[in-house]
Amino acid sequence: MRLTLRIWRQAGPSAAGRLVDYVAENVSPDMSFLEMLDVVNEGLVKKGEDAIVFDSDCREGICGMCSLVVNGVPHGPDRGTTVCQLHMRRFKDGDTITIEPWRAKGFPVVKDLVVDRSALDRIIAAGGYVSVNAGGAPDGNAILIPKDISETAMDSAACIQCGACEAACKNASAHLFMSAKISHLSLLPQGKPERFRRVIAMIEQADSEGFGSCSNEGECEAVCPKEIPISNIARMTREYVKALFVTR
Ligand code: SF4
Ligand code: FES
């Protein structure tokens, strides 16, 4: 395939950015999207030009590092798929593909397609741990947890902290991400002792990082590579309201 790539280039956090056109020749449908960018970069380096900077690590959909907006959609056109798992067979010869970084106030651009997502780490650090000394690992059957509760908690734990939900939301809300973490911990008995302190701390931290609130658009759920449902946001809101009554 021969493709035209319109790629966001930005030299640094305070530099002006712009879309630059590149032609990618001989693209195999079996390439992953990131392999295709690797080949484009090899060509640029051979010509003595700056390689296009983008994030990736595992390239198998589990680490949350890849973060590209492809034709306006975070992680691209395939549902429940990270952009590192997107393949070029999804496109056809002659296509023009626009590639941009996550765009949200809480995610400043570092360079080209890389954004600073440390705000999500600070939200986790604000409330996403259990500080109670639980002693040694208990026997698996000592704390009985209903199957449906453990399944829902583990489904929530599938969040890979990629930030696509914030990038897709018109409010740049971090609610789907936070609600996945809060659901994971507050549903399980081990996470209950600090559930109220946790939900308040995480929401306050997200507000201070410049993320917006939720207005129930559902864009986050649509782009989430782990298909985290927005019903988690309703659970987080219930937790938050209860926490305000209990603690204030
Ligand atoms: S909820 Fe989904 S989209 Fe949001 S950070 Fe977690 S995995 Fe990424
Ligand atoms: S590079 Fe790890 S999820 Fe995409």
Looking at this protein, list some descriptive labels.
binds FE2/S2 (inorganic) cluster, 5-stranded mixed sheet, 12% strand, 7 strands, single chain, two-stranded antiparallel sheet, alpha+beta
Provide the β-strand percentage band. 5-15%
Terminus-to-terminus distance: 61 Å
Largest sheet: 5 strands, mixed
Give the overall pLDDT as a whole number. 94
Bin the helical content: 25-40%
Radius of gyration: 20 Å
The 3D shape can be described as: elongated
Assembly classification: single chain
How many strand segments?
7
Order of helices and strands: EEHEEEEEHHHHHHH
Walk across the major sheet and give the strand order. Answer: 2-1-5-3-4
Low-confidence stretches: none
The number of helical elements comes to 8
Q: Which molecules other than protein and nucleic acid are bound?
A: iron/sulfur cluster, FE2/S2 (inorganic) cluster
Instruction: Label the structural class.
Output: alpha+beta
Written account of the structure:
The chain is α+β, with helices and mostly antiparallel strands. Helix content is 35%, strand content 12%. It is built from 8 helices and 7 strands; from the N terminus they run ββαβββββααααααα. The strands form 2 sheets. Strands 2-1-5-3-4 form a 5-stranded mixed β-sheet. A hairpin with an 8-residue loop joins strand 1 (3-9) and strand 2 (18-24). Iron/sulfur cluster (SF4) is lined by residues 159-165, 176-177, 180, 224-226, 228.
